[in-house]
């Protein structure tokens, strides 16, 4: 595949950092190497000497003085080797990507560590999206994605979705505006990028079926665009087997996948990773070299030690416990919603993630209801409009997160919110159809 045609001018102009190359070369060299090349500070001057981190139900993670010196020093921009190796094995075992055995030129699977998946997304967008480009995405979508894309000056095209994710028929209808033969022509307006959250989407909680992914992938092949598979809730799927991913279908090396440990290990550690074609991951790493340089060595070593201590089986056992917690929270949310909201709202049970997407009946927009009336009663949800491409468009939805609150708090919020909503209609004119529906 000719990846050069997908790159923005800024990304295409990036060159490797000579100092970063020397840093990685030094770290791969034997201890006997004497180097006067690097500008790294002397770790003997650092105030931190060692650390012991207690792990639930397991051995403590111990960083002795030599390891601590490494943890507090610069490291390579791809990520520390032992963590990258573990992650590559994980991706191969979970997704069996066809690209794992490809040559570099054909788009061999490559990975890099990022400071949370958000950094990875921002760098992918900067690499692929020019001002004026047409970008496909399922909206409503994650507000952080909109915040990253909109300043790039691209044209965001909303592909309709439902509780099963992006609707291929709508995508096909949109793409029929263009001739597939024009996709590789210079200056063509055929979309070159599709973005989607395939599991437990934020904010809708929607999860795309395998059949829909296959249809979307075939359209990507026909119109020759790349798929950005942003999957931070992959490990929070409530049913097994877990859904096949775009990465597992990627025979053409056209999928860039972002994963995150934020929901399953720690959000504050800021560990994410990108998996995709080597030529594109290399471009992301060039950006990392010029910006953050690398994800925190300390947090990478801490996570790497934990994963190696656990092994694949221990990691998946931990994931099972996390899933069970969120499944219970989800069930509590659904039970409470059925008790308090069934006459005034509608929703679909999420099959992954941590959000319930609630549509209120008889109301065009939830912004004032949430930001004024609900706040007055000390309850807070997210008005759905913030997840639209145009946040000022009226939206009858609210997003309710069930990750942090206790079952009692979830029930209290939904009871209070229902009272607020119903009281809103009591002050409507007596002949209001919605007042009649709700009161009766």
TrEMBL record:
It holds the Pfam family Aminotran_1_2. SUPFAM superfamilies: PLP-dependent transferases (SSF53383). Signal peptide: none annotated. Belongs to the class-I pyridoxal-phosphate-dependent aminotransferase family. Pathway: Amino-acid degradation; L-lysine degradation via saccharopine pathway; glutaryl-CoA from L-lysine: step 4/6. GO terms for biological process: alpha-amino acid metabolic process. Transmembrane segments: none annotated. Its cofactor is pyridoxal 5'-phosphate. PANTHER family: AMINOTRANSFERASE (PTHR42790), KYNURENINE_ALPHA-AMINOADIPATE AMINOTRANSFERASE, MITOCHONDRIAL (PTHR42790:SF19). The gene is aadat. Transaminase with broad substrate specificity. Has transaminase activity towards aminoadipate, kynurenine, methionine and glutamate. Shows activity also towards tryptophan, aspartate and hydroxykynurenine. Accepts a variety of oxo-acids as amino-group acceptors, with a preference for 2-oxoglutarate, 2-oxocaproic acid, phenylpyruvate and alpha-oxo-gamma-methiol butyric acid. Can also use glyoxylate as amino-group acceptor (in vitro). Keywords: Aminotransferase, Pyridoxal phosphate, Transferase. This is Kynurenine/alpha-aminoadipate aminotransferase, mitochondrial.
């Amino acid at each position: 595949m000719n990846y050069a045609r997908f790159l923005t001018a800024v990304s295409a102009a990036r060159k490797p950092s000579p100092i970063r190359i020397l840093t990685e070369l030094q770290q791969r060299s034997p201890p006997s190497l004497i180097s006067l090349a690097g500008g790294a500070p002397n770790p003997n001057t650092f105030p931190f000497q060692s650390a012991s981190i207690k792990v639930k139900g397991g051995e403590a993670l111990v960083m002795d003085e030599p390891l601590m010196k490494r943890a507090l020093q610069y490291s390579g921009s791809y990520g520390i080797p032992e963590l990258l190796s573990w992650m590559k094995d994980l991706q191969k075992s979970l997704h069996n990507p066809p690209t794992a055995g490809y040559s570099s030129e054909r788009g061999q699977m490559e990975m890099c560590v990022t400071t949370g998946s958000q950094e990875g997304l921002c760098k992918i967008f900067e690499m692929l999206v020019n001002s004026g480009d047409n970008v496909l995405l399922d909206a409503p979508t994650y507000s952080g994605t909109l915040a990253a894309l909109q300043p790039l000056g691209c044209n965001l095209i909303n592909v309709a979705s439902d509780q099963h994710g992006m609707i291929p028929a709508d995508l096909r209808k949109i793409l029929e505006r263009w001739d597939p033969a024009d996709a590789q022509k210079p200056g063509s307006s055929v979309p070159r990028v599709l973005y989607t959250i395939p599991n437990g989407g934020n904010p809708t909680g929607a999860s795309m079926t395998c059949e829909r992914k296959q249809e979307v992938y075939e359209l990507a092949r026909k119109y020759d665009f790349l798929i950005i598979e942003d999957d931070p809730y992959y490990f929070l799927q409530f049913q097994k087997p877990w859904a096949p991913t775009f990465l597992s279908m990627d025979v053409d090396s056209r999928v860039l996948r972002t994963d995150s440990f934020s929901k399953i290990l720690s959000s504050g550690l800021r560990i994410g990773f990108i998996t995709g074609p080597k030529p594109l991951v290399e471009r992301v790493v060039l950006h990392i070299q010029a910006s953050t340089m690398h994800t925190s060595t300390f947090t990478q070593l801490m996570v790497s030690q934990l994963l190696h201590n656990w092994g694949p089986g221990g990691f998946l056992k931990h994931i099972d416990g996390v899933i069970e917690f969120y499944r219970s929270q989800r069930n509590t949310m659904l039970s409470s919603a059925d008790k308090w909201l069934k006459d005034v709202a509608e929703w679909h049970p999420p099959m992954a993630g941590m959000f319930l997407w609630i549509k209120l009946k008889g109301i065009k927009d939830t912004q004032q209801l949430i930001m004024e009336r609900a706040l007055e009663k000390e309850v807070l949800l997210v008005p759905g409009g913030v997840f639209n491409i145009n946040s000022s468009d009226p939206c009858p939805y609210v997003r309710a997160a069930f990750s942090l609150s206790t079952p009692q708090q979830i029930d209290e919020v939904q009871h209070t919110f229902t009272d607020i909503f119903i009281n809103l209609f009591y002050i409507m004119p007596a002949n209001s159809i919605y007042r009649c529906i709700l009161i009766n």
